[in-house]
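re: that complex we talked abt at group meeting.

here r the seqs, copy pasted straight from the sheet so there may be weird spacing, ignore it
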Amino acid sequence: MELLFAYFESKSRLILSDAEKELISAKFRSKHVRKRQYLLQEGDVCKYFSFIDHGAARTYSVDEKGNEHILHFGIEGWWMGDHESFTHDIPSRLNIDTFEDTHFLTITKDSLQELIEKIPAVAITIKTIYNQRAISAEKRIHAAISLTPEERFQELRATYPDFLQRFPLGQIASYLGISIKTLGRIRSGGK
Amino acid sequence: MELLFAYFESKSRLILSDAEKELISAKFRSKHVRKRQYLLQEGDVCKYFSFIDHGAARTYSVDEKGNEHILHFGIEGWWMGDHESFTHDIPSRLNIDTFEDTHFLTITKDSLQELIEKIPAVAITIKTIYNQRAISAEKRIHAAISLTPEERFQELRATYPDFLQRFPLGQIASYLGISIKTLGRIRSGGK
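got the structure back, here u go
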């Protein structure tokens, strides 16, 4: 829980009291997912949002031909979940699985709402991350529709340098929407 | 202002008092932008978020070759603005201009914050639209990286049927990231 407490304090710039920490601990559940196992499978409703305490995961869809398309990566300090499914209780079109043994801290919609109402640091944090999600989603849309493969790779390297250490190249290529061959060419040419 | 009041009431499911309406009226400014004129130009800081009271607009970027890439369309009841620029006071990479004479209701960050603190209907609405933005951005990322041009067009037609009436075909093609020739083929084949 220490990473989650530090996360709320750093995002909100408020200090959590012991009582607030206790309430947060009571509302989040630990969930251990072994390497290459699912946190969420297509067709299921996303019942909780999940904070990565330790590990690495991805959100992806699978098209009719069986090709995977990666929407998001996540590492320590990131949230995983399907917003639409979580908000509207509808089956998800997405899958979430792990690259390594991963420890998630999960929370349901009702419990999150309770924490937002009772703990200012949580309320401020959630507001901040919704805004940051909107910003990073805008950037990702911009990159997908208007940047060249080279530019998309440079932007990824500048914005999330950790990703290049934590995820296999084939996965990075899928995230960027390019072939692994093109990615290899960009990396060797771009250094 | 009537559309904006109705918007806050419908999104929040609360009724605005006369005093609240008065405060909202005092904080929003009217801005008329003639057809094909800018609301925001690349390099400027996005100082306010803008609600479309009447008209039609688009958000787009221009790449080094001078090609336009459309990120968003907006019509009555939609908001236009660059989240990242607005939140962090940094120059925008985006342009916003209009397809017809457009009446915006604009608000600065400080005024929006004041309304959020004083008017529950505004606070609930802003929270709701942040979440909806996150959901629609996820869908747009999903469409951009994993759907075929045909599927992207079908999803647009199902989700925003108005867009096909309000925006030129060449603009729709740019939004979908396909050529106008491909869009023509899809439309004639898909009916």
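couple things i noticed - Residues 147 and 172 of chain B are 16 Å apart (CA to CA). Chain B has a mean pLDDT of 92.
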